[in-house]
Amino acid sequence: MNRLVVFICLIIFYSCSSTKKMSNIETNPLPLDYSNLDFWAAHPQKKSYSDSLPNGFTKKENPQIDVFFVHPTTYTSNKGKLYWNAKIDDEKLNKKTDETSILFQASIFNDNARIFAPRYRQTHLKAFFTKDKINAEKAFDIAYGDVKAAFDYYMKYENNGRPIIIAGHSQGMKHAAHLLKDYFDGKPLQNLLIAGYIVGLPLENNYFNNIKPCESPNDINCVCSWRTYKSGKYPKFHIPNNKIIVTNPLSWKRDEEFVDKSKNKQAILLKFANPVDEVCDAQCHDGLLWTKLHFKGSRFIFNPNYHVGDFNLFWGSIRKNIQVRTDNYFRLRN
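RE: above sequence
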């Protein structure tokens, strides 16, 4: 079965299922030592799925920039005792993360960048749906504490003044946006920011004080964000408004211009090795990115929420845009 279909079915199951009682939250968790490469899903000093390339793609030998990528929730299992936060040394979970998000999402950025993607004690998927908001927020704080520690380590030992992209999806987007607010928003580090690709959850226009939404394909020091839904459909609790940042990943603008599927080249679906053209169109509408799927098997996807495809559906377009913004960054800085 198409991997995209499987992921969407998982989202349906967990968003609709009743929330089992979670184990007590971990108090005062010990900080992780990110000098240990085991705590990185992707790092320049280790081989990882982020190094993978589909057929027909190459990458540059001397990367000019860095990408700090925060992976989405892969901690979804109901087997055994449920914990609010994943164990950092859960080999099965780490393998799942590597073979999904790191392969299909982080690899987008490997053309001209070193990729740093930390493992972290991610919060269980059910935390997004539970009524126990207090413990859920504590669990998210633990997860963000790890991401923050990894970024501190990266800045101290790895960055050395290199331009950077901050990227994340879903739970990873939540933490990546938090990083941008804490470290970049109106601070000197914003000058090193090529762009943020923070995707999968609603990002309000006023979340940042100084970081603006990207308005064109070559803007820098800005953020792109979107949530992908079937054209004509809305989330269950959607309140129509224009307060959410939505970027069209085919035009890289924020207007409501419809962009035809013919402009969507080299998306990644079931087989990572074989990119597919014209898998979907795209249009910004009312806080969402609307699209209609056009690939084989898409008629069996009944959930209108295309969350798991936020990056994959536009893989080639995002990869190309990274180079456009990077080139413009160096042109302006020089």
